[in-house]
């Protein structure tokens, strides 16, 4: 008597039912069969060697061909759960022929935990996929055959050569799909209510005849739309933030998948809504103040995604560095995917190549960005965490695997009404020589025209302003605010904000210098605006001093709030809670805020939080006041560099010079580590730059 073992379908059924059919009867039956028929039991529950597993066949031409999968309708098997069995077939097609001859739906999903897997039948063999993709295939399977593209199945993930070629086609794949099906996961708490509100919003837009989303900021239009919407007490409105906590919203690859898609549908459990309807609802919520961003949801990332999609769909040029900063907080399993995921959305010459390491890709990307940006040095303004002794990358190469919640000082906001910073002065249009040289090893960046700010050596540093103070508990919120207020106390001391001495540039009021430094020079450029900000700044400062004094008391935070209410300070308590929830504790944006912000918004810290979050105030030996990154130390030097909009804080690498002899290469040229960009009040528009005094320095 021979034993063939389970068929692939039976094996998949048993594997997927583990943990589901683990009842007493099933366990007893298995134990009995093992005792009475040990040989049959061993084969019936055979390990994978008895089962034919799927093996990829090489694509004839991976530069223009792709695999597609066809999901068969739900089968009707007898002794196992048919709903858990996914049966697919693969076929190879030429991508350019797909829209007409091979229409397909591209799936966008989050891979999830790689250790949570399920089995499916693929071309008569067994294939292992992640649980998340298995759920998506179950959801999208219909009564008839349907054709899809899913990266985990259609690309051989173990073949770097094929993966490299296929990832280069990702933009074309999603652009040529008939639609993109987004799988957000199984239904969760109130997710159905959120999508119901989204559908109601779509109907309200139709009834209100609104065609331009910019009209959402018109109070009359808002009132008309609200007439057709559920009441604000509807749980769907309050659950949007929780809905945006799903991992898919924070994934790097979805940016390209949604940006280029002709159309997209969001699926969560059994509910669905179109991308256009849902994104317009978020824009409306943003306009009326219902959409709040915190680090525990991905609202800020979703807003950035909507901007990138709008730019792409309207054929607007997208600067690659600006996009990288905008989406830096998004996650990717592999570091280099942060570059590859956006490279298809811009004119960027660096192609995906999985044979290279993260460090090699980050280095090549930095060099290409410098060349593309008219040989500018904006790449040096990318914020980073403090350098460690075991760092792999040179200090001038951004490590995109780290996500510091700090804004770059280079203002990428195109709607800004203020001129961009030009700390090294305006370069003549005829000057086409790059202001830098890169060593053959790609480890050393030579700045050909750099000038140390006289008296620009740092002699004092303050506490770092916390960058992500949000926490879900009141005591944690108050603790975070206490850290913020403690930092501001040291900032006042370092800057000498309360002194009657004039600033080094001759400005008579150090208070104004201090205020404008907190705002990174983005406001107060005319007398009317400056006076308005003085008033608002004084009100805000008085408010935080009161809370700083209260929170430093030995009383528990909850008791402090209760005492405020007891003594008739309810209005102040409400103001503080509103400040906590909608102001400072919102997630920091990754570019400078729009300069047209409402002046009154300084009361909730929105205008300056993007500049000071994650930074510390410093003072130089001649009295210059600046905002530097957290890694700034006493002894660091402020340098002005030709081709750079902002000054940089550099640290002399004296020990490194001795070991490597770098300082003897050319005219005593020294080696420096890039600490980061820095706002120095009074030098941001070329006031202190002297090109005739410039020389070469090396950044390592």
From TrEMBL:
Entry keyword set: Membrane, Transmembrane, Transmembrane helix
Domain Heterokaryon incompatibility: 104-257
Transmembrane segments annotated in the record for this chain: 559-577
Pfam families: HET (PF06985), Het-6_barrel (PF26639)
InterPro entries for this protein: HET, HetReg/Transcr_Mod
Signal peptide: none
Tagged with keyword Membrane: yes
UniProt protein name: HET-domain-containing protein
């Amino acid at each position: 008597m021979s034993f063939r073992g389970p068929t692939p379908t039976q094996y998949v059924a048993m594997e997927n039912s583990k943990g589901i059919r683990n009842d007493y009867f099933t366990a007893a039956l298995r134990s009995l069969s093992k005792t009475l028929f040990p040989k049959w039991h061993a084969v019936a529950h055979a390990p994978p060697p008895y089962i034919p597993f799927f093996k990829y066949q090489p694509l004839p031409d991976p530069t223009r061909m792709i695999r597609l999968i066809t999901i068969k309708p739900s089968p009707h098997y007898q002794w196992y759960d048919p709903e858990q069995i996914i049966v697919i077939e693969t076929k190879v097609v030429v991508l350019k022929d797909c829209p007409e001859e091979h229409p397909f739906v591209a799936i966008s999903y989050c891979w999830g935990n790689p250790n949570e897997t399920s089995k499916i039948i693929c071309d008569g063999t067994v294939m292992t996929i992640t649980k998340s993709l298995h759920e998506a295939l179950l959801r999208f399977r219909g009564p008839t055959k349907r054709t899809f593209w899913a990266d985990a199945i259609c690309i051989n993930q173990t073949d770097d050569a094929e993966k490299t070629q296929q990832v280069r086609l990702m933009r074309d794949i999603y652009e040529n799909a008939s639609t993109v099906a987004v799988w957000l996961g199984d239904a969760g708490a109130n997710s159905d209510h959120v999508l119901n509100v989204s559908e109601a919003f779509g109907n309200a837009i139709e009834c209100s005849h609104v065609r331009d989303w910019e009209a959402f900021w018109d109070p009359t239009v808002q009132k008309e739309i609200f007439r057709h919407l559920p009441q604000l007490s509807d749980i769907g409105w309050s659950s949007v933030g929780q809905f945006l906590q799903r991992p898919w919203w924070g994934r790097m690859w979805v940016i390209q998948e949604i940006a280029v898609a002709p159309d997209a549908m969001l699926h969560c459990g059994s509910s669905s809504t179109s991308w256009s309807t849902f994104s317009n609802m978020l824009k409306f919520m943003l306009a009326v103040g219902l959409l709040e961003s915190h680090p525990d949801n991905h609202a800020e990332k979703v807003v950035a995604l909507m901007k990138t999609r709008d730019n792409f769909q309207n054929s607007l040029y997208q600067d690659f560095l600006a996009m990288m900063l905008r989406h830096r907080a998004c996650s990717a399993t592999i570091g280099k995917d942060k570059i590859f995921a956006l490279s298809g959305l811009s004119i960027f010459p660096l192609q995906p190549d999985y044979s290279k390491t993260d460090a090699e890709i980050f280095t090549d990307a930095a060099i290409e960005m410098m060349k593309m940006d008219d040989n500018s040095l904006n790449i040096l303004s990318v914020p980073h965490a403090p350098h460690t002794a075991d760092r792999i990358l040179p200090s001038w190469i951004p490590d995109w695997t780290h996500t510091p919640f700090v804004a770059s000082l280079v203002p990428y906001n195109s709607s800004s009404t203020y001129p961009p910073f030009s700390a090294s002065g305006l370069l003549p249009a005829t000057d086409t020589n790059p202001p830098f040289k890169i060593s053959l090893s790609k480890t050393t960046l030579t700045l050909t025209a750099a000038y140390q700010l006289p008296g620009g050596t740092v002699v004092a540093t303050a506490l770092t302003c916390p960058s992500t103070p949000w926490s879900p508990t009141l005591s944690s919120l108050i603790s975070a605010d206490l850290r913020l207020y403690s930092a501001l106390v040291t900032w006042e001391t370092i800057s000498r904000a309360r002194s009657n001495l004039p600033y080094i540039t001759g400005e008579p009021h150090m208070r104004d210098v201090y205020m404008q430094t907190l705002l990174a020079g983005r406001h107060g450029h005319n007398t009317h605006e400056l006076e308005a900000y003085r008033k608002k700044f004084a009100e805000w400062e008085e408010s935080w001093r009161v809370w700083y004094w209260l929170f430093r008391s030995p009383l528990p935070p909850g008791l402090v709030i209760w005492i405020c209410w007891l003594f008739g300070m309810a209005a102040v308590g409400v103001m503080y809670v509103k400040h906590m929830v909608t102001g400072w504790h919102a997630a920091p944006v990754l570019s400078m805020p729009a300069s047209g912000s409402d002046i009154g918004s300084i009361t909730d810290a929105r205008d300056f939080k993007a500049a000071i979050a994650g930074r510390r105030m410093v003072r130089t030996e001649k009295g210059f006041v600046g905002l530097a990154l957290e890694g700034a130390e006493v002894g660091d030097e402020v340098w002005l560099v030709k081709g750079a909009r902002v000054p940089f804080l550099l640290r002399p690498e004296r020990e490194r010079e001795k070991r490597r002899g770098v300082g003897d290469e050319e005219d005593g040229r020294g080696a420096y580590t890039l600490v980061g960009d820095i706002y120095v009040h009074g030098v941001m528009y070329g006031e202190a730059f002297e090109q005739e005094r410039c020389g070469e320095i090396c950044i390592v």
